[in-house]
Amino acid sequence: MFKCNAFPTLDTYMKALTHEERVVPVRGTNMKPIHMRSRKYMQIKRLANDDVVYFDGWASSGEPVNATDYIVKWKPNGEIHINAPMYNCVYEQLTSLLGVQFKREKNLLWVLINGGTLLPLRRYAGDTPTILKWVDDTLTYTNPPEITQKAINRGVAKAVRAKYKRVYDYLRSMSKIHDSDFLFSEYIETFDIEWKHEGTMRYWDITRAIPKIELGRQFACQDDVVEIVSLANEGDLDMSHKLMLICAWAAGERHHWADTDSVACNPTRLVKAFDDFILRLHREEVFYDKEVLAGKTPSTANNKFFY
Predict the structure, then answer these.
(1) What is the DSSP code (8-state) at residue 89?
(2) Cβ contact 57:40 at 8 Å
(3) Of 151, 198, 250, 281, which has the maximum CB count within 10 A?
(4) Every domain of the chain and the residues it spans
(5) Phi-psi bin for 107: left (phi > 0), alpha (psi -120 to 50), beta?
(6) Average pLDDT, the chain
(7) 3-state class of 145 per DSSP?
(8) What residues contact 181, with CB distance under 8 A and at least 6 apart?
């Protein structure tokens, strides 16, 4: 639709400058479309300092709104700055514009450059843009970021888990003797929930009423879970029971959406829900930034603990 792979190849400052000078503004405006005139908001502009920028100017009339309002900037000194957002086909635009392969993977933009090495672009709207420059007839990435991934320090994790031994022991033992089906009626009694629906719709009454321990919940909204865990770790059996039910609800599943009055959860999944929360609670201690070798894609498996 946008013909993102049909942008002109502007891999040097002079090519970008020449292209900008040749583009006729859209009638009645100062807007110079970089490729399709039907996509006039995709604009190219020579600035007062002689920089040439490609910017996505939806609400503009030929002028970037600020100094960082660009996707690509060609500078007279030969540098090419990239400040690209993650939307749709921007990697195809960059590939077409600059003549090297860009791709989108694991919530990052990447470029295949520097002798065939796959390197991540710097974050959009960060302090420093991605900078490319021709060196010995080769387009080179001059400031690639250090590539890291969140890795777990197993020794620290073991020590953190030891602080909650009382809770782990309770959940492991009680979940083994508890029926694998956790009845809705147990939740209404334990959490003193007032029913607003009948039958299987009571699932939503429980979902709204009980604290959420799962990683999909923002950590800033889990103060109630932190308090329950703290009291359970001090030996409060009522809070320990509530914690078990919360974990079962987060890790369990309904047999049938249409005709069930329980969630099913085995001990392994129940304890895993609690363990994930503890790692999240102590994430600054447990996880560290591990350097990833150039050309390797960093794992995002542990990023879930930082949402």
Answers:
(1) T
(2) no
(3) 250
(4) 4-144, 151-285
(5) left
(6) 91
(7) coil
(8) 262, 263, 264
